[in-house]
Every structure is written in C-alpha cells, then in structure tokens.
Amino acid sequence: MPREMMFAEAIAVAITEEMQRDPNVVFYGQNMAMTERDPFVRKFGKERVRITPISETAELGIAVGAAMSGLRPIVELYMAEFMLVAFDEVINEAPRLRYMSGGQVKVPCVFKAGFGFAAGWAGQHSNCTYHAMMGIPGLKIALPSTSADAMGLMRSAIRDDNPVVYLHHYMLTIDKSPVPDGEHIVPFGVADIKRPGTDVTIVATAWMVKKSLAAAEMLAKEGISAEVVDPRTLSPLDVNTIVESVKKTGRLVLVDQAPRHASAAVVIAGEVAEQGFKYLRAPVKMVTALDTSVPYSETLERYVLPSEEKIVDAAKFVVAMQAAAV
Amino acid sequence: MVLASQLSNERLTWMYAQMLRIREFEERVKRTFVEHPGVIRGHAHLGDGAEASIVGSLATRNEADPVMPSYRCHGYPLVLGTPARALMAEIYQRRDGICKGFGGSMHLADPAHHFPTASGIIGQGIAHAAGVAYAAQVKKSGQVVYSFFGDGSSKQGAFHETLNLAAVWKLPVVFVLENNMYQAYTHYKLEDANAVAGDPLSQKAKAYSIPGQTVDGTDVLAVFDVVAGAADRARSGEGPSLIESRFYRLSPHGNAITVPPVPTQFQEHESIEVYGNKAEFEAAKKNDPILKFRAHLISHGMLTDLDAKKVEDRVRTEMDEVVKFALASPMPAPEEATKYVWA
User: Fold this and answer.
1) DSSP SS3 for B324
2) A19 vs chain B: nearest CA distance in angstroms?
C-alpha cells in the first residue's frame, strides 16, 4: 500500500535507508547533527554524520576527496545559492577529475540543496541555478517534483558513481503525496508523464510541475487536453520522451522558474527544434521567469514568476495557432 | 619515529637518486620546448628547487599514505613509483600517458601509486586532501595524507576553510606549504600578511590552533625530521599540522604563455625577468638542494663520489630513455575523447 509522505520526509527516509544499506555513505553540513538527539547522529554516529562550519569550499572539496577514496558523501547545503560560494568544486573539480585522470578515479557524491524559495526570500535565496550546471559533462542534476520522486531520485543519487546535484524545491517541502512501498528507486534520465494528454505537451520540473498540473486541470475545463511531462533529471535529460510527446500533441509549452535565458527550457527548446521540428504544429512557447532578479514584494514576485494563468495562456495560444493554421 | 640521523646509507642514496630523478625529469621537460617545439601544449610547471622538500617529505610516508600535490605535480609521482615514461608521455599528450592524454602536466594522477589527483585550480586540492583524510579517518585505515601546495594557495579561501575544518575534525593530514618565494610572478613578500609583518608563513597555523613550523626546504634531512613529526602526530589521531617548507623555485612559474603558432619555452626566472634581481637568483642556484645533499653525503662518508656518479649516470640514462619512449608513443585516437565523462 502506498504511503502518504511529506516531500522532505521522503528525502530523509531515502538518506536514512541508504546509510543503513551502505556504511560508506556519510552525511554532513552546516547546522545539522548539532546534538546527540539528532536522528541521523543517533542512528549512524558522529563519524558518519557531522556538523561543518560555514565553509562551502571545504565542505564540497572534502566531499570530492572523500568520494575519490571510497566514501559516498552527501553534503547538506540548504540553499542552492550557497553552492555558488564553492562553484569551482561543483563545476570545475567534482565533474572533471575523472575525465582528466583518464578514468582512473570516480567521484560519487551528492550536493543536496533546496532552491526556488518563492516566499519573500528576494534576490539571493530564491534562484534556480541549475542551468549553469546542466551543461557540465560529468555532473548529474536531479529535480524531484513529488514525494515518490524525491525518495527514488535521492536513492539513485547516492548510488550513482558520479557527482550529483540534488535540488529539492522549497515550496514542495511540506506537500504530501503517495510513495510506493519497498525500496522505491527512480532511475536517472527517465522522464515521467505526470498527466497524459493529446492537445499540448507541457514540460516542467519541480514546483513548476505542480503549477502545470493545476493549469492542465483548468485547460481541461475548456476542453484542452494537456500532457504534463517531468524530466526529473536535467542531466541526463530524457529528450526522447519529450519528443515522443510532441509527436503526439504537436505543441510544446516549456515551463521553467528560472529567468528565460538561464532556464533549462532553452536547452529543451533547442533539442526539440532539432529532433522534433517535423512534429510541431505551432512554435514552442516558453513560460519562464522574467529576466530580472527575484523581487521581495509579493506583488512583484508574482509578476516575475510563472503562474498557472501564464501556463494556461501559453497553452491556449499554441492550441489556437494550430487551429488557425488548419 | 625514525629520525633523519638514523636513516641507512642505502635509504639516503635512494633519497639522493629520487631528488636527481626529479631534477633530470624537469630539465628534460624544459628542454623539450626547445628541442621538440609543439610536443608540450598549454602550461607546464616545474619543481626544480623543490627536490629536497618533496623527497624529504615523501621519505617519511608509510606505504599506503596518499599524496595530493598542486598542479606543479611532476616530482611526487616519480618518487611514489609511477613510471617516469608514463608521466612524460602524458606531458607529451600521448596515448601511453598516465592519464591517456586527458590530463596533461597540471592534472597528473596515479591512484594506484597513492596519488589520487591534482587540481589545476589554486588551493582546491587542499580541500580534496582533507577529504581523502576524512575517508581515512572514517575507515580507520591508519593512513596519513600529505597535502602539498604553494605559498600562493595559502591566500585562498580553500586553504583557510580546510585548515579550520581539518583541525576541528582532527583529520590525519600534513599540510606542506611550499614557499618557493614566488606566487606565479609575484614575490610572496608583496602579497602575504605574515611576510609583510616579518613573520614566517607557518604563523598561519596559529589561527587554527595547530602546530606550525618553518623548515629549510633545501635541506632534505631537516625536512624529513619536521614532516616525520607531523605525520606521527597525524597518525596518532592528534590532527593536522602546517609546515612551511622554504626553498627557491629555480625555473620560472611556467613556460611563457603564447598564442599558437607562436612557440613557447621557459624564459628567465621572474627574479631577473620581472624584478631585475640577478643576485637573488644566483644565490639560490648556489644553494642548490641537490648539490648540498651530495656534498653532505660524501663529506659524511655515506656515499662515495664514484657511487654518486653511478647514481647520476643511471638517472640520466633512465630519463633519456623516458624522452625517447614518450616521443615514440602514439597520439590517442580522436574518438577516445568521449570516454571517461561518466563513471
């Protein structure tokens, strides 16, 4: 029987069970494991679960070194922007050392962080930084949108022999959704069709999946059948499932919380333009954040970010264009 | 703990041979730019002048102790047992290179000989070394990690963050700050707060409440004793130490940065090229760590002049053959380039 589980709990369960399964998995970060009462410290002890100072370069660099030496570190970074402080490790160390060594080492580690916190955190704590990482060969990126995916992708991230940036959306933290029983694993590079449909394909990740599903519900009331596809990992990216969906619907709306030119949407649009052009019956439409920093005030923030209404408008636009063309 | 004064003549001769191997290897890298232009691409950084510091440090290792150098990394694997021909072939961009032509001079790696990787980005390897030490601590392997980096690295955030955390976690690591007097082209007295105040760079250890010591890095036996003490401390669970090993880099920072097809080679040392201080450079050359150690061994009856010459002949023959091998090694097949992206 599937259990209802909070998004954050699903992640914690995956980490706990993987640490039980593999003694080489270690877990550390700032402001965690502070007392003996910490559940991870209680279960796994202070060797494997540690508190760190506010030193992201050391935290990530130590993960890289430890990963090369047989451990599987998970670094808790809390906010994706804190990774920027140590971006050399994320971009220029962890994913490159295997390649530069001619395949002599592997660097299995997980950089875990929340992102996209659209709740008044303003310019420096609300961002979507994955675009800057998704073109880096050797680096994987997971972006779960449901509790089941949060659990299954975390398991895959820990077991993967490559460095993985695992980004969980802050706005999903307390959402509850069903999680299958047993050792639930979600493989990387396999998109999930969150809602089947026939008129328009909507591709979205993380919080934007939730918004796209709400938009699809609104579209259904107007007789438009939207298919919502969640790639779940941006690297590797399951282009095939997206193109197959476009083949069926002929229309594509890409929803992304990042600013337009720093979005995953632009990369997906490029792939579909090359691989799925013949199936398109309307131009690709991108619903992204505006090209601004994220503002503090709620009215400003709402104006900048994608919304259900903007997604609905975009879907209706491409569907109408097709109708006009026919 | 073994002291340098207790080392056997055989061991001392081995150390002399390793110092010589580093020097002769680096000399051949440097000559390659003149004799075989284009064979070495990008930027190569030599360790001549560092021989006593490298060998004195590494001679204190236990068999499985990992070594994490900076991008100036040719010398360490030579001592650890990596075939010199595989290192030269890598620097010559060849298929038989230790990294199959994927890494080059700045990114050598030989985990089979306890040299996991080197980072080309200043200071980042210090954090990696602490990570290797963290793994050793969790696995209770008894290993001590040897982390080598330049004086320039000690102004990087990675250095300070890592020393703090390594001290908090009592990681089994020895931090060897190789003060070779120049941070790339800048004299360290122009950019180091301790130096400006007239203090040694080992002073930085005080900020992290760990032992800090400065040693004459041109004296291989002095280096041995100081590093052995720090390794002993790390192995017994007392945590890291910082050692400032002072020596003089005898070559410039790297080969001149030129845009192809303009040829590149090593120019005059920056002491002359930039600062016009020929006297400083000449003094450093007189204080050559290899010549000093040779004279010490002979004057103390630990090595005869004849035996020293035999070592020197053997090393030169080895390195001549290394160059021949590397030149003859084929280039990698182009389509190999997509390998090793993913594990």
Assistant:
1) helix
2) 14
**Is-catalytic flag, A18?**
no
pTM of the model: 0.96
Check if A222 contacts B (Cβ < 8 Å). Answer: no
Alpha carbon dihedral A126, A131, A133, A135, in 10-degree steps, equals 180
Residue A325 has pLDDT above 60, yes or no: no
Residues from chain A contacting residue B343 (CB–CB below 8 Å): 98, 106-108, 161-162
Tokens of residue A138, six digits: 């050797």
Do residues B133 and B173 lie in contact, with contact meaning Cβ atoms separated by under 8 Å? yes
Q: With an 8 Å Cβ cutoff, are A65 and B109 in contact?
A: no
To the query of whether residue A47 is one of the catalytic residues in this protein, the response is no
HSE-CB for B71 with a 13 A CA cutoff = 23
CB contact under 8 A, A104 and B139: no
In whole angstroms, what is the distance from residue B109 CA to residue B139 CA?
A: 22
What angle do helix axes B9-35 and B51-58 make, rounded to 10 degrees?
140
- Catalytic residue, chosen from A9, A59, A93, A125, is A125
Q: What is the dotted CATH code of the domain comprising B8-327?
A: 3.40.50.970
A98/chain B closest Cα distance in angstroms? 6
Residue in B211, B213, B187 with CA at minimum distance from that of residue B201? B213
Query: Residues 133-162, chain B: which have Cβ within 8 Å of A?
Result: 133-139, 157-158, 161-162
User: B34 Cβ partners below 8 Å, 6+ apart?
Assistant: B265
- ipTM of the modeled complex: 0.95
Structure tokens at B103: 């890494």
Residue A1, pLDDT score: 77
Residue A322 has pLDDT above 70, yes or no: no
Supply the DSSP string of A103-156, one letter for each residue.
SS-----EEEEEE--TTT-GGGSS---THHHHT-TT-EEE---SHHHHHHHHHH
Alpha carbons within 13 A on the beta-carbon side of A236? 14
Q: Closest partner residue to A106 among B107, B169, B343, by Cβ?
A: B343
- Of A153, A113, A315, the closest CA to residue A234 belongs to A153
Task: Report all structural domains of chain A as residue ranges with CATH numbers, in order of start.
Answer: 3-179 (3.40.50.970), 192-325 (3.40.50.920)
Strands B173-179 and B241-246: parallel
Q: Where are the beta strands (DSSP E) in B95-226?
A: 145-150, 173-179, 182-183, 186-187, 212-216
pLDDT tens digits along A255-269: 999 999 999 999 999
- β-bridge mates for residue B173, sequence order: B145
Residue B170 CA to residue B165 CA, distance in Å, equals 8
The answer to whether the Cα torsion of B76, B78, B83, B88 is positive or negative is positive
Residues B334/B46, Cβ–Cβ less than 8 Å = no
Give me the residue from B124, B127, B165 closest to A53, CB to CB. B165
Contact A57 B138 (CB under 8 A): no
From chain A, the residues in CB contact with B119 under 8 A are 93, 97
Q: Nearest-CA distance from A22 to chain B in Å? A: 13
A58/B127 touch (CB, cutoff 8 Å), yes or no:
yes
Contact A229, A245 (CB under 8 A): yes
Give tens-digit pLDDT for A59-110: 999 999 999 999 999 999 999 999 999 999 999 999 999 999 999 999 999 9
Ramachandran angles phi, psi of A217, nearest 5°: -65, -45
Name the β-bridge partners of B270. Answer: none
What residues of A are in contact with residue B170 (Cβ under 8 Å)? none
Does the bond joining A236 to the residue before it have cis omega, within 30 degrees of 0?
A: yes
